[in-house]
Input
Amino acid sequence: MENRHPASAHSGFIKPARRYVRRFMEITGLIGPYFRWLEHRIARRPGEPVIDGRPMPPRDLIVAVSGTADERWFSERGKSDAAKFMTIAKRYGLDEANAAAVLDWGCGCGRIARWIADDVIRGGGRFHGADLNPTLIRWCAANLPGFYTENSLRPPLPLGDSQFDLVYAHSVLTHLTEAVAVDWLAECARVLKPGAIALLTFHDETFAEHWGPPEVSPALKTRPYLVWNNALEGSNYLSAWTTRAHFGALARTADLDLLEIIPGSQEFPEQALAVLRRR
Ligand SMILES: C[S@@+](CC[C@H](N)C(=O)[O-])C[C@H]1O[C@@H](n2cnc3c(N)ncnc32)[C@H](O)[C@@H]1O
Output
């Protein structure tokens, strides 16, 4: 998710020779073990432990979702991302003090959930997290309030129709190819109650220009959905980039009305955020 860390597919591989090596590793399947080895190395770097009053995941898990082992970043950005999601959701009518049902799709190791789940449950509501990665889901289920379930790369979620007042997903669509992302937009719509809100982040053209690999921003001018490093889909190795206009068009193929897109930030690596309402 972080854009400039050494294990990220965006950084080390830009020289042509390295590109060939990387492609070779993708074709032979060596890229998986190599990428995990890089992540493991990052997790071993020295760093200050942070105590913030919530369970802190092991560093390997933090790296798997954030690309950094920095517990301070994990804690502080998790808290501010959670506040941002809840502020926007409330602006669009969510009342978490009133038995709201909330889904964190692609919850990782609870970077955001650890700041939201308690409040939702205290308000009489239901908090649910779902993720592709069983290790992350096991950690969440053992350490955080709420229900946590695993799902496959493609839908469905193991959940019934029209259950949630809010679905949010931070930096999840950003690791999916277009066809899979489209299926997930429809799946988010399926589990939302009619009129309920989805908050989904993505890499837009502003984020690409300021924080992306140099090749992506110009390429987006002719290709509205671009996949960078097309292997290990769902992991941080693959990153997906799309224009705001194209994201809006994709959302319209699902049962979702696009209410607003907050563009990615130029000042610091913050993805674009789409506010969508289930029809
Ligand atoms: C960059 S991490 C972000 C994690 C978390 N949302 C956060 O902001 O810390 C991306 C997460 O999405 C999960 N993921 C990727 N594709 C998924 C899919 N199809 N369904 C559920 N989770 C997925 C990954 O396993 C990973 O935990």
About this structure: Residues 1, 65, 106-108, 111-112, 130-133, 136, 151, 153, 170-172, 175-176, 234, 236 surround S-adenosylmethionine (CB under 6 Å).
